[in-house]
């Protein structure tokens, strides 16, 4: 009868769960389906007295069963993504969930055979350890990531980025920073790699914005791109359990108190004293500040707010509208004339003729927003109307065209003085009234 009872439990829970139960003897009455409640009480009493149930072993083995299921589930999703789509791409942020996915892709052979490509977005504001860690796992797993950064800037050239976009863009306009440094290069990377299925490490455990995601969904990039979330149902504890089980290479800042790693400018340890750490594949300190629901990203976007004043929790990559890019210039057609160089701009300023000049950046959403109205103004303006791209000539436009941010509209007077238009109202009528105000002053 003991063998029969063991077989029943094994059939229900799997053989691995049986080790939590020590050998014992059950009477026919106690295993009978019709056992009374008092009989059940006797069973519980006997289990306690005879120490036939080891709670810690049961918990450990239950976690192992869960991890095995999650692993198989994730690998099945990755198999669908890699085998059923032509160009699966994994944008890898090198955080805990992403290194798990990297490890799974390696185990399945998809990194070696190139069925899945890995891309990384360098924002030029990452921790130094992040790109160093990328090189380490490239060597460890034998792949080469495709790195993308702000448009028009060579990979790794922070000085070129500062010159074109400004070192303080994130302070001046965080939404523009996200667009320039994250969303646009992210989308450009997917397009360059011709992907039709994007892998990513988002999970339901990360917070209410992601609480209902499934393993597959449509990505907000346009064109029917699929998004695969292979670890959608994992908790952060599952992730670190998996890292520990397989000794998965992981970001070195986990050992310094960071549960998740983003930009150095707005990522902090949790708790801030760094007392919770993941060192040598195990936790030191109280792990609950990391592992509680929605706490993984608690140290991210610290001190940042959206335009509407709400707390920032997303960088914009995974939200609707991410398909909008700035891969074109502004005012290509029409009567807005282009100023091609600093020298030409200087000539116009010193020419003795009145003119209107907008200093702009094609990636700037506010420049894009006034494109139509400025073009309409140029159609009827009584003075020449110019555009000058200033994002690559920041020193010059600051010194000569009153420009600290984009767009900046100036009226050039006949005496060579440059007067800035100081209003957020940017319709064709507003620009016309600004121009006419100088006619009145001259009359």
TrEMBL record:
Decide whether keyword Signal is in the record.
Answer: yes
The signal peptide, as residue positions, is 1-20
Q: Which InterPro entries match?
A: PAPS_reduct_dom, Rossmann-like_a/b/a_fold, Thioredoxin-like_sf, Thioredoxin_domain
The record's section on Gene3D superfamilies has: Glutaredoxin, HUPs
Q: Which CDD domains match?
A: PAPS_reductase
Per UniProt, residues of the Thioredoxin domain are 317-443
Q: Do the record's keywords include rRNA-binding?
A: no
Q: Where are the transmembrane segments?
A: none
Q: Which UniProt keywords apply?
A: Signal
Its recorded name reads Thioredoxin domain-containing protein
Q: Which organism is it from?
A: Discostella pseudostelligera
């Amino acid at each position: 009868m003991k063998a029969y009872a063991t077989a029943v439990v094994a059939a229900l829970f799997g053989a691995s769960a049986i080790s939590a139960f020590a050998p014992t003897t059950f009477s026919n009455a106690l295993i009978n389906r019709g056992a009374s409640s008092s009989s059940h009480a006797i069973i519980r009493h006997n289990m306690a007295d005879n120490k036939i149930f080891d709670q810690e072993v049961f918990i450990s083995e239950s976690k192992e069963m869960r991890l095995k299921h999650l692993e198989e589930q994730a690998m099945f999703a990755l198999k669908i993504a890699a085998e059923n789509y032509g160009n699966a791409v994994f944008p890898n942020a090198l955080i805990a969930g992403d290194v798990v996915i990297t490890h799974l892709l390696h185990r399945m052979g998809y990194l070696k055979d190139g069925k899945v490509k890995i891309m990384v977005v360098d924002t030029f504001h990452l921790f130094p350890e992040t790109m160093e860690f990328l090189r380490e796992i490239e060597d460890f797993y034998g792949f080469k990531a495709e790195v993308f950064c702000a448009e028009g800037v060579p990979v790794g050239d922070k000085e070129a980025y500062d010159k074109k976009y400004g070192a303080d863009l994130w302070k001046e306009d965080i939404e523009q920073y996200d667009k320039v440094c994250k969303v646009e290069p992210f989308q450009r990377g997917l397009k360059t790699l011709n992907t039709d299925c994007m892998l990513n490490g988002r999970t339901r455990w990360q917070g209410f914005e992601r609480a209902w995601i499934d393993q597959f969904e449509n990505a907000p990039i346009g064109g029917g791109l699929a998004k695969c979330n292979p670890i959608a149902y994992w908790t952060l504890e599952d992730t670190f359990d998996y890292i520990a089980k397989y000794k998965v290479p992981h970001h070195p800042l986990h050992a310094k108190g960071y549960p998740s790693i983003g930009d150095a400018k707005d990522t902090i340890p949790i708790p801030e004293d760094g007392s919770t750490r993941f060192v040598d594949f195990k936790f030191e300190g109280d792990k609950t500040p990391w592992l509680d629901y929605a706490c993984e990203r608690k140290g991210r976007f610290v001190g940042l707010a959206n335009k509407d004043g709400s707390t920032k929790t997303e960088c914009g990559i995974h939200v609707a509208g991410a398909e909008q890019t700035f891969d074109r210039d502004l005012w290509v057609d029409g009567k807005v004339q282009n100023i091609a160089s600093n020298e030409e701009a200087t000539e116009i300023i010193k020419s003795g003729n009145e003119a209107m000049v907008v200093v702009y950046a094609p990636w700037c959403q506010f420049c894009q927003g006034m494109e139509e109205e400025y073009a309409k103004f140029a159609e009827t303006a009584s003075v020449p109307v110019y555009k000058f791209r200033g994002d690559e000539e920041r020193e010059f436009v600051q010194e000569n065209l009153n420009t600290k941010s984009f767009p900046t509209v100036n009226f050039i007077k006949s005496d060579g003085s440059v007067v800035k238009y100081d209003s957020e109202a940017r319709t064709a009528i507003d620009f016309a009234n600004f121009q006419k105000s100088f006619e009145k002053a001259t009359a």
